[in-house]
Design brief:
about 0% strand, 2 domains, mainly alpha, 16 helices, globular
Length: about 400
């Protein structure tokens, strides 16, 4: 039943696109700040939908993979002007960040990364990004790991990832274990099957190669890498990091250093954080690579709303689906934690001054733990670059 007090204004498609393009230019500070901005403008001031409906919609978006703020924009655009409106709203919201990231990637590749004087600054940035990711993992874990079994599933996924098991084994196994937790025999069978499958496929996934491998990467391969990240982004944009890294760093398309630099740029731009995929795609395959991986990353965020618009709320009411997704999300926490461990080890190999690097990491971690402002991450990344240059890490 609709509430007549709430309704989107009559907007042309161009007006709708420009409205969400404006949101895109102001999308600093991560998903919490982005969602708050959209809510303030369209719910509290514009009265497009009721606050209660917005909260239900947000709950649906948090269950689905993909950046929540972008999915909300797609859904609100559909409420205003149907599926074309949803497509234009989503494009408007992501376009500023995409174009800015393309510019940043071009500047990085053509002017900055080969400059020896910039190496300490970029290493300082990478150390700070590790601290930001560590804090993000803690926040995600606090939201997702609500009981002992979820903690155990996260720990199992952590160990499986470090042992070289393909990413999908702990995800599927964790979802099934948590769904059938009340049946001990089923849980034991699922765990044994997962261990056996991991043993049979030991190191079947791409091994991490941080060297300068040939980077003639196909557009389709980059699209699939982005699609994998987009489909597995549960609980926040940071959860896309291990999957994009597996298919880019893992296949030797880019280095760990460049990957972390891309995450750093994403944290400074007005965009969903998953825009770091655009940077990775550009470094690996130029403009066409950036376009392909970005399309893959954002396709699920468009598709779930555009295709299942009328059914989303009904689908997520299924309690078995809730338990399966909770188990998958717990495994994702473990996978991200393992990826952080691997990134930290790779960064440690590149530093010539371990003690200053540790001090910088500790200071950055303390700052992100204490301050939650939307400009904290960009300011900290810039400060990390300055500190790295001064200390010559």
């Amino acid at each position: 039943m609709t509430d007549d007090r709430y309704s989107p204004p009559t907007l042309s498609l161009l007006q709708l696109f420009l409205r969400f393009l404006g949101f895109g230019f102001l999308a600093f500070g991560g998903p919490v700040a982005q969602i708050a901005m959209v809510k303030q403008a369209l719910v509290e001031e514009g009265r497009w939908i009721s606050p209660a409906r917005f909260n239900r919609l947000l709950a649906v978006m948090q269950v689905l993979p993909g950046p929540e703020a972008h999915e909300l924009c797609v859904h609100l655009g559909m409420i205003a002007r149907g599926r074309i409106g949803g497509l234009l709203a989503g494009l408007g919201f992501m376009l500023p960040g995409f174009l800015l990231m393309l510019g940043a990637a071009w500047l990085y590749e053509d002017w900055l990364v080969g400059n020896p004087a910039m190496a300490p600054a970029f290493l300082g940035v990478q150390v700070v990004v590790l601290a930001i990711i560590a804090r993000a993992i803690q926040r995600i874990a606090a939201h997702i790991l609500e009981d002992k079994l979820l903690w155990l599933l996260a720990a199992g996924a952590f160990a499986a990832t470090l042992s070289g098991a393909p990413f999908w084994i702990p995800l599927i196994a964790s979802g099934l274990v948590y769904t059938y937790a009340a049946r001990p025999a089923a849980v034991v069978g699922i765990c044994l099957a997962a261990v056996l499958l991991a043993a049979l496929m030991f190191n079947a996934g791409p091994s991490i190669n941080t060297g300068d491998a040939a980077r003639q990467v196909g557009v389709l391969a980059l699209f699939i890498a982005g699609l994998k990240g987009g489909l597995l982004t549960f609980g926040g944009a940071y959860t896309a990091i291990p999957y994009v890294r597996s298919d880019t760093v893992g296949r030797g398309w880019i280095t760990d250093a460049s990957f972390l630099d891309g995450v750093a740029f994403a944290g400074m731009l007005p965009a969903p954080l998953v825009i770091f995929a655009t940077f990775a795609g550009y470094v690996a395959g130029g403009f066409s690579g950036a376009l392909a991986i970005t399309a893959g990353m954002f396709l699920p965020a468009f598709a779930f709303s555009l295709i299942f618009f009328e059914r989303l709320e009904a689908i997520v009411e299924n309690p078995k689906l809730h338990r399966a997704l909770a188990g998958v999300a717990a495994a994702v926490v473990g996978v991200i934690a393992a990826t952080l461990f691997q990134l930290a080890a790779s960064t440690a190999e590149r530093t010539t001054s371990p003690l200053p690097s540790l001090l910088l990491f500790g200071a950055a971690l303390w700052i992100v733990w204490r301050w939650k402002g939307k400009l904290t991450a960009p300011a900290l990344i810039l400060a990390g670059g300055v500190a790295g240059w001064i200390m010559h890490l």
